[in-house]
Design brief:
single chain, 507 residues, mainly alpha, Fumarase C, Chain B, domain 1, Fumarase C, Chain A, domain 2, 2 domains, two-stranded parallel ribbon, 9 strands
């Protein structure tokens, strides 16, 4: 089954299926006509020898230099070669696939002037798993992601490097192995391939899918900690949250209430003297819910951006216009990624505070200090919170917004830039750290529930059982790095939501 692309209605669910499940893509027949019509218009401009930016002129500060017809193909090839200046780590296969997909989706709209044959070659690369090696550093987020997208385009030309069937080979070799012919770029095609926001948007889309899942997991993990600490569930009553009806807060409170409702442990202290808990327990819906609401804004931004034409110039055959605009400026995505950074930072921050509650003998309601099996002889989980604290503090440093920075480039022609791509990768690191912090909380909460000897709710007991498959109960001090890493993989997957969904409808 293939996903039919129009450039206008690609969904995040379809994106996920193409990126992770390797679903194929193909062009909508109606949009093939638009692509061809736009290309015919470009050819007409060249035939008439018009002065049009990027078609018959140089780029950026060289926009005032006229390029003769005989050099137009060389101009486009030089654009890709000269702009492939990326450095640093290579994007993951998933990140590369999402960038390729979103670039294709832009081109399908029929306002970029690319030839149908060139676009079909790019589609063939995606469908056959030819993945260009794209360095992650080198974009300032306007004019779009020029450097990384140029590395993508290199492979189309038979240049650069690509991953194919698990091996990194030259671009020409990857195309040869996949039985794909390299492309010779014509007028406008270099610009059509390397100008746009697809790297920051693609990485941002994958970040968003992770963050949305992490919100669900965070509610589950928090519930385990609250139960292990013999916290009261009264703060999660719908009566409270209906009086402050932020959608995310209500969703999170409903999760917590449902997860604790059938807990024998929770019922066992229903009439105790504890009437309210520390903020890190009691205010979980207010914090986690605010993250959820921020992610809804981010989702809206990403969904618009991934279906937008963000290259320059844009071509309008019906209006007989070629317009140099600024859709390549990544400010909307930059703001969204900065928002994700500080909101996910808070998701981890409050998690670390619950871990402290579980370990601190002054706060953990008569549990062993640091959940140590033999306190003093064993240090137990003491250092897990130190690791958690380190990651939380790192996240706080990383939460400084990238979008408030700008630096002029291209001889001050590009004098204000978004830094959206930096923001997207920064948010990715924060997500990585937050997943570890939640894994540490989950490990501690599972140990604490063991000491309580009374059953939690069926859903939480099922999660605890899954944890025990991965991390053995601590009965003596041991190295915990592998335990943390293995649990982090569980946190950053659908495993916990899928387990819980068998018992309650997780929001």
């Amino acid at each position: 089954m293939s996903v039919i692309l129009t450039g206008n209605d690609l969904t995040l669910n379809e994106l996920s299926n193409i990126v992770y499940d390797r679903e194929k893509v193909e062009l909508h027949p109606d949009y093939i006509k638009k692509i061809v019509k736009c290309r015919d218009y470009v050819d007409k401009i060249i035939e008439e020898d018009r002065v049009v930016y990027g078609l018959t002129t140089g780029f950026g500060k060289f926009a005032n230099i006229r390029i003769s017809t005989e050099h137009i193909e060389e101009l486009q090839r030089n654009l890709i070669l000269s702009h492939a200046t990326g450095v640093g780590e290579i994007l993951s296969i998933e990140e590369t696939r999402v960038v390729m997909l979103l670039r294709i989706n832009v081109l399908v709209k029929g306002h970029s002037g690319i030839r149908l044959s060139t676009l079909q070659t790019l589609i063939e690369m995606l469908n056959k798993g030819v993945h260009p090696c794209i360095p992650e550093k080198g974009s300032v987020g306007a004019s779009g992601d020029l450097a990384p997208l140029s590395h993508l385009a290199l492979v189309l030309l038979g240049e650069g490097e690509a991953e194919y069937n698990g091996n990194v080979v030259s671009g020409s070799k990857a195309l040869e192995l996949a039985k794909i012919k390299p492309v010779v770029l014509k007028a406008k095609e270099g610009l059509a391939l390397n100008n746009g926001t697809q790297v920051m948007t693609g990485v941002g889309a994958l970040n968003l899918l992770r963050a949305e899942r992490l919100c669900k997991v965070a509610d589950v993990v928090a519930s385990m900690s609250i139960d292990a600490l013999m916290g009261t569930g009264s703060a999660f009553d719908a009566l409270v949250h209906n009086l402050r009806p932020h959608a995310g807060q209500k969703e999170s409170a409903k999760n917590l209430n449902s997860l604790l409702k059938e807990s024998e442990l929770n019922c066992s202290h229903k009439y105790c003297s504890n009437v309210q808990d520390a903020y890190s327990l009691r205010c979980t819906p207010q914090v986690n819910g605010a993250v959820r609401d921020a992610l809804k804004y981010i989702r809206n931004t990403i969904e618009i951006e991934m279906n937008s034409a963000t290259d320059n110039p844009l071509i309008f055959p019906d209006e007989d216009k070629v317009i140099s605009g600024g859709n390549f400026h990544g400010e909307p995505v930059a703001f969204a990624m900065d928002t994700m950074a500080f909101t996910v930072c808070e998701l981890a921050n409050i998690s670390d505070r619950r871990t402290e509650q579980l370990l601190n003998p002054a706060l953990n309601n008569d549990l062993n200090p640091f959940l140590a099996p033999r306190p003093g002889l064993d240090s137990g989980f003491m250092m897990t919170q130190v690791t958690s604290a380190a990651l939380v503090s790192e996240n706080k440093v990383l939460s400084h917004p990238a979008s408030v920075d700008s630096i002029p480039t291209s001889a001050n022609q590009e004098d204000h830039v978004s830094m959206g791509t930096i923001g997207a990768f920064k948010a990715r690191t924060i997500l990585d750290n937050a997943s570890v912090v939640l894994a540490i909380e989950l490990m501690n909460a599972s140990q604490a529930l063991y000491y309580r000897k009374i059953q939690s709710s069926p859903a939480l007991e099922a999660v605890k059982k899954e944890v025990r498959k991965i991390v053995a109960h601590l009965d003596r001090d041991r190295i915990m790095t592998d335990d943390i890493n293995n649990l982090t993989q569980i946190i950053d997957s659908d495993i916990i939501p899928n387990i819980v969904d068998k018992f309650i409808e997780l929001q």
